[in-house]
Design brief:
There is one protein chain. The chain is α/β, with parallel strands linked by helices and 175 residues long. It has a single domain, classed as Response regulator (Rossmann fold, 3-Layer(aba) Sandwich), CATH 3.40.50. It is 54% helix and 14% strand. The chain contains 5 helices and 5 strands. Strands 2-1-3-4-5 form a 5-stranded parallel beta sheet, sandwiched between helices. 24% of the residues are buried. The model has no long low-confidence stretch (mean pLDDT 89).
Amino acid sequence: MKSIVIVDDRVTNRRILSRLASELDSKPDVETFGGPVLALGWLEQNEPDLVVTDYKMPNLDGAEFVQSCADVPVIVVTAYEDKGFRYDALNAGATDFLLSPVDHEEFRARARNLLTLRYQQCLLKRRAAQLQDKLELSNRLHKVALKESKEQLRLVMNTIPAMISATNAEHRYVF
């Protein structure tokens, strides 16, 4: 099941964002936190599919919090229209940016898109891990087969009474 973390120091904003997130098609689990320090504690033990956070909160700079969510899509919500805030958030690793008050339909659309992106990311990671495992197994099997082939060749060579020699690619005698 998908999960969304909402971090905002204002109770009203947490309630609105939580309700909007809960209404998404995928019906995700929603965790809310009144501050970034509490959220970071939760994030150490869990990996959500999306983080929605206010940028200006007490105890921790928004950029620092966003950087701690490196592998997860992050929507930053703030009332400040200053482009500097946007640039800071995006440079820190935020995936998207919304101005408060949040347009409900826009929030749903962006959250859905980022959840889909996260799902696809996870699929790609799993597929890459599967392919890596297959490659490692294939390499081990090839090494075993090569060793067996060399041993069989050595046995054949030892049974032939004539003088036979073999060289490698550098033209050195191997036997």
